[in-house]
Amino acid sequence: MKNDLRIDALRERYVRGDVSPRQLMLALHDKAQSINPQFNAFIHLLSPEELEPYLAVLESTPIERLPLYGVPFAIKDNIDLAGVPTTAACPAYAYTPERSASVVQRLIDLGAVPLGKTNLDQFATGLNGTRSPYGACVNSVNSDYPSGGSSAGSPLAVALGITSFALGTDTAGSGRVPAALNGLVGLKATKGLISTAGVIPACRTLDCVTTFTATSREASQLLALLAVQDPADEYSRANPAWNDGSAFGRITSFRFGIPRACDLEFFGCSEGPGLFEAAVERLKALGGEPVTIDFSPFLEAARLLYEGPWVAERYSVVGALAQAQPEAVLPVIHAVLEAGPKVSGVDTFRAQYRLQRLKAQCDQTLKDLHCVLTPTIGRPVTLAELADEPVKRNSELGYYTNFMNLLDYAAVAVPSGVMQNGLPWGITLMGRAYTDHYLLSLANAYQGLEAPASDARNDMTRLVVCGAHLDGLALNWQLRQRGARLLESTSSSSHYKLYALAGGAVKRPGMVRVQEGGAAIAVEVWEMPSMELGSFLTGIPAPLGLGKVELSDGRWETGFICEGAGLEGATDITEWGGWRAWLASMS
């Protein structure tokens, strides 16, 4: 049986009748059971009897009604699945929920089938995958290395061909580090986009549910289905329209940040620098312009996660058990949590003020960039190294990940290369909140996979201007006031006429598309925050408006257009080729 479990490929197999969900799920159950002793990926595998209700629903439902019909998935065992114990890798903490976590229930309602609950670093505290009484999770490629954590078993389920995708959680990198170590796409979406209701908290204010997939397109498909505001989760956030599933598309030119050489850290790995440089060149080949940035504020924010008061937030979940049954909590987890009770309110507010100062600096760095590129980890560490120095080696794994949720950014880990020992090596693309599908579009291009015909979108809108809004002219302040920046000076296609409109306090042109007799008109392309576009649009007086303008290279962009009725009394100035040239002729 061909075992291509990618979401679209699996759906095609179902439609053709190559396999049924029942056949597939039972075969995958047997496969997982046979390899689990080697990898320790699953804490609980659903039995055929436990799978039966899900399979029965599928057998009575047409496939076209369910976008995830028969898609197998795995669930990190700090996320609830009704009727199955949730352990957080601590048997003494275990309970059996009556209801599934919101994200799990939504996936089931969409037709996906849960195969089991996966192993993790206890209480999602760790980045390596060895901190579990259910056994260390061994890497899917090289058994000398861990799978990474804390979502340790979830990437194994995907990388070993057991499920199409898997759910993890990410507070400090738990959804990105294991993705990199197992050659997968790990999406840590904008905080709050995927509900955490029914998830055992690590740090409630920072936690994100993440996905592990083989491709960026699958991650985009899942996010489009899961980014629904959840009344059951007080930290849930609405997803802006510019970041819906249609934002996933092809990539054109973009600017990406890269840390200064002094900020990059590979912890003695001889291959890391070359692999990272190759990633930079790959992005340049895709149309990217690299911009060197000061990465030190990001790294300073990262240190706050364990050196600051957020360790007390972890303690608020585990502390009572750790005190009442100290033997139930692993010694390394005790070591992480020991500072928690000592954190004062004063400490907390001071750290919050410091974090806000750093966020302001980091936000300014990201302001004119489409993303920032970093390694996902500086250097993979072996199981032996983790045994010798568990805290130090674990800390190294979080060098490029710990700051992300503190600063409220989106990030996607992407496979990027293979090390000489066969271990996967990966990069992370990070950006502002609510640019998830854009980052996934860039990751998709990086993977060399086909993209939709439409351009990818982020939280910025491109705007073509041809008159008083040109740089330095009378109404340009309306753009700059809204945080817009000039991208390029270019021209329209040769299908336009330009008119000087009659009346108005400020001289304005009207650009009109024509079938014949047109010319290329000088224009500028600006980029404006999407959230500002509405206020800009309402201030545009008749007969002008916004529509689609064709540029000289064939692109169609949002820009100023003019109603035909507004040309009464207007002067045809097409021969001047642009508004500036006509103004100069008048003076």
Describe this structure in words.
The chain is 32% helix and 19% strand. It is built from 18 helices and 19 strands. An eleven-stranded mixed beta sheet has the order 1-3-2-4-6-5-10-11-9-7-8, sandwiched between helices. Helix 2 (21-39) runs antiparallel to helix 3 (48-59), helix 7 (216-226) packs antiparallel against helix 15 and helix 9 runs antiparallel to helix 12 (345-366). It starts with 6 loop residues before the first helix and ends with a helix. The relative contact order is 0.10.
Rg from C-alpha positions?
27 Å
> Can you give the helix content as a percent range?
25-40%
Strand order of the largest sheet: 1-3-2-4-6-5-10-11-9-7-8
Number of helices: 18
Structural class designation = alpha+beta
* Multimeric status of the protein: single chain
The overall pLDDT, averaged over residues, is 96
The count of DSSP E runs of length 2 or more, i.e. the number of strands, is: 19
Percent strand equals 15-25%
* Ends distance: 77 Å
Major beta sheet, specifics?
11 strands, mixed
Low-pLDDT windows of residues: none
Shape label: globular
